[in-house]
Write a structure and sequence with these properties.
single chain, about 260 residues, D-Amino Acid Oxidase, Chain A, domain 2, five-stranded antiparallel β-sheet, elongated
Amino acid sequence: MGRRFHALHPNGRGLAGEVERCADGSREEVRADTVVGGDGAASRVARAAGWAPLETVPLMQAIVPLPKDMAPDTVRVWFVPQDTPYFYWLIPESAERGALGVIGESGPETRRRLQRFLEKRRFDPIEFQGGRIPVYTSWVPVRRQVGQSSVYLVGDAAAQVKGSTVGGTVTGFRGALGVAEAAADRLASPGEVPPHATPPGGAWKKCSRRWTGRRSDSGAMPRRSSNVRMVKTHRNERQTRRVKCLCIGCCFSVLL
């Protein structure tokens, strides 16, 4: 942790990632056999490995006091088709306040509509939050070959979002699990899998389909700036440090 990803390039039979230490801004190179990008809709890993940019939509929400008649273990949704093809939501964060939000199609217009909705429903915003999330338009392959090694994407980086709501924490985690299994199989038996080959069939099918159960569906992951976590091993007799799998993003508990 504590590092930010900047670049990726082939290095012999593996990959080399350029990362920046957040503490002092210094740069270092990290070598890996496999790289997993879980760094959001604007994934730097995806761009470095050759994936095309994703189509995104704006998400805006306000932190508001909970209404007195709302229990903190419930949520509310409002369908307002003239404002959004999705819906407004109010999700409690505590017994006192919650997040009231909406997904739109235009950033400035989405902010205006949220503000109008707050005023109409007499909510007093404490703060505003916003970002952009991917929409599912077509299947995004989750593996690309870079040099002789593999790069995988999970979550928002792979547009693993539900077509109906553009959410998908559950489906994103299922996607991360499929990638983790495929990468683990590849790393566990490097001599049996040529560097240019697809991982063993069973794991690759899970990697392609597990997060939804069908190739054509979708799912999503946390949306934060990228950090880097490394799994370290040592290389036989020379005992020089070598990173087997470099995971970039927010989904470490699933990937590792």
